[in-house]
Design goal:
The structure holds 2 protein chains of 2 kinds. Chain A is an alpha/beta fold. Helix content of chain A is about 40%, strand content about 15%. Chain B has a single domain, classed as Alpha-Beta Barrel (TIM Barrel), CATH 3.20.20.70. Chain B contains 12 helices and 9 strands. In chain B, strands 5-4-3-2-1-9-8-7-6 form a 9-stranded parallel beta sheet. Chain B is globular and about 45 Å long. Chain B starts with a helix and ends with a helix. Classes of the chains: A alpha/beta, B alpha/beta. At the A-B interface, helix 3 and strand 3 of A face helix 3 and helix 5 of B. The complex binds pyridoxal-5'-phosphate (PLP). Pyridoxal-5'-phosphate binds next to helix 5 and helix 9 of chain A.
Chain lengths: ~260, ~270
């Protein structure tokens, strides 16, 4: 794990350690997710005979994007069934945040053939696309090859990978799973971008109104729903993926609000 | 005949092996790299592997990662590397292989890259994260311009895949001496000799061995069976330690001379 993410996600790191994990800090590059992926791949090729590589998102060399999609699809299959049971029809739109894109791919995949269901992935626009400090690979990146997959990347004119920025560590990655790039290119899914400030506002709104504290990553999806809903009819249905709890983000949110814990 | 084939054939006539130093272009800057290449050639390099710096060098250990970072900090671009090769080419016939990652090449444009690299005097290209199965975007352009796409084999490459890749190899085959990244461990020559001989039996091109060769003793041992010996991190470490000091060229010359002596006296 990048040392910057260890800092931002100290609650999660503490939990991982309680569960018995050994967490290696990665200091190379930007010390975030992409650098942790570089070092994990380096470790894997060095110990390939007795080490299994696993990744928590739908990126990386084949067959990882496919494997992670299939595992994560439980979300979408159950959501689809429950939707039919509870409402009697499919949703008009399914919305999820996109870092590497696993929770979104898991939600979308069982709906891909349901052409009437809009699929909307939400990337992090950080401090704004124009600022250059964002993580919106599909919305503002270009095609390249990194970590064994061809996809949309944040890169400069020489093909060097650029730093991503998002207030949420889980979206702070300068690429996106290749199947999202494909769904975008064939026009099956749409990709929006939500800024740090919009995500924080959505975080507060969901917390106050529903008593549900969403992860900062998931808050990007919530923010997009808050934007979309007023444009839709009252009887239309939006399915949103709440990919995680916000307990882990208390420090970051407090810091953003200028509160010392 | 290509410069790589010519060089390797000439060495074969002399019953000797090739010494192939690797250095990262632009570390610490392109002018120094240019001076270094001439020193390498004068002190026994038969082929030069020139690293294209990349922000995310996944197959490299800390030594070459840092070299990449220094080169990028100095403003090195792929275009700048090609211009460097063109300048070097005016003074030397040494085969030059560009080694790196696919994204800078893809971003440059595969058609333009192949044409510009050939015009600059590049002889081969080795891209560690471009598996042969995915090379169709680049390889036809390289071929049209007379450039070799060098392939890698690892200790974990299954025999069937080894035979297929060895049979189709261009320029030379690069055998990675261990499972791991560059500069991570020391080579164990005795442990890889049989694997290298097996590959040689299946291919028409020379077999180079790299990763973990750091001393003249290693170089001599590996040259006992391999056709070419690649030395990277050990050289990059010297460049890193000397930086822009006036001693840099002499230190590199001394190290290369010792390596060359090892390779020439291999049996
Ligand atoms: C709660 C949560 N949601 C979403 C993500 C983003 O990952 P992905 O885009 O793969 O779903 C993360 C990543 O760490 C996360 O922790």
């Amino acid at each position: 794990m990048g040392t910057e993410d260890i800092r931002r996600q100290s609650m999660n790191v503490f939990r991982m350690k309680l569960l018995g994990a050994k967490v290696h800090g990665v200091t190379s590059g930007t010390a975030t997710l992409k650098d942790a992926m570089n070092d994990a791949l380096r470790h894997w090729v060095t110990h390939v005979r007795d080490t299994f590589y696993v990744i928590g998102t739908v990126a990386g060399p084949h067959p990882y994007p496919q494997m992670v999609r299939d595992f994560q699809s439980v979300i979408g299959r159950e959501a689809r069934e429950q939707m039919l049971e509870a409402v009697g029809c499919l949703p008009d739109a399914a919305v999820a945040c996109v870092g590497g894109g696993s929770n979104a791919m898991g939600l979308f995949y069982p709906f891909v053939e349901d052409k009437a269901v809009r699929l909307i992935g939400v990337e992090a626009s950080g401090l704004g696309i124009a600022s250059g400090k964002h993580a919106a690979s599909i919305s503002a990146g270009s095609v390249g090859v990194l970590h064994g997959n061809k996809t949309y990347l944040l890169q400069d004119g020489d093909g060097q990978i650029q730093h991503a920025h998002s207030i949420s560590a889980g979206l702070d990655y300068p690429g996106v799973g290749p199947e999202h790039a494909h769904l975008h290119d064939i026009g099956r899914a749409e990709y929006a971008a939500i800024s740090d400030d919009e995500a924080l506002a959505a975080f507060k709104m969901l917390t106050e109104m529903e008593g549900i504290i969403p992860a900062l990553e998931s808050s990007h999806a919530i923010a997009e729903v808050i934007k979309m809903a007023p444009q839709m009819n009252k009887d239309q249905i939006i399915l949103v993926c709440l990919s995680g709890r916000g307990d882990k983000d208390m420090h970051t949110v407090a810091e953003a609000m200028g509160i010392e814990l | 005949m290509s410069r790589i084939a010519e060089t390797m054939n000439a060495l074969k006539q002399k019953r000797t092996k090739a010494l192939v130093p690797f250095l990262t272009a632009g570390d610490p800057d392109l002018a120094t790299t240019e001076a270094l290449i001439h020193v390498l050639v004068e002190s026994g390099a038969d082929i030069i592997e020139l690293g294209i710096p990349f922000s995310d060098p996944m197959a490299d250990g800390p030594t070459i990662q840092l070299a990449s970072e220094r080169a990028l900090a100095a403003g090195t671009t792929l275009k700048g590397v090609l211009e460097l090769v063109a300048r070097v080419r005016r003074r030397t016939n040494v085969p030059i292989v560009l080694m790196g990652y696919y994204n800078p090449v893809l971003c440059y444009g595969t058609t333009a890259f192949a044409a510009d690299a050939a015009a600059a005097g590049v002889d081969g290209v080795l891209l560690v994260d471009l598996p042969p199965e995915e090379a169709q975007e680049l390889q036809p352009h390289l071929r049209r311009n007379g450039l070799d796409l060098i392939t890698l084999l690892a200790p974990t490459t299954p025999p069937e895949r080894m035979r297929a890749l060895a049979g189709a190899a261009e320029g030379y085959l690069y055998y990675v001496s261990m499972t791991g990244v560059t500069g991570s461990q020391q080579v164990n020559p005795a442990a890889i000799a049989d694997a290298v001989r097996d590959i040689q039996a299946h291919c028409q091109v020379p077999v180079a061995v790299g990763f973990g060769i750091t001393t003249p003793v290693d170089a001599k041992a590996v040259a006992g069976f391999a056709d070419a010996v690649v030395v990277g991190s050990a050289l990059v470490n010297i460049i890193a330690a000397a930086g822009r000091s006036p001693e840099l060229l002499n230190e590199v010359r001394a190290f290369m001379t010792a390596l060359s002596e090892g390779v020439r006296t291999a049996e």
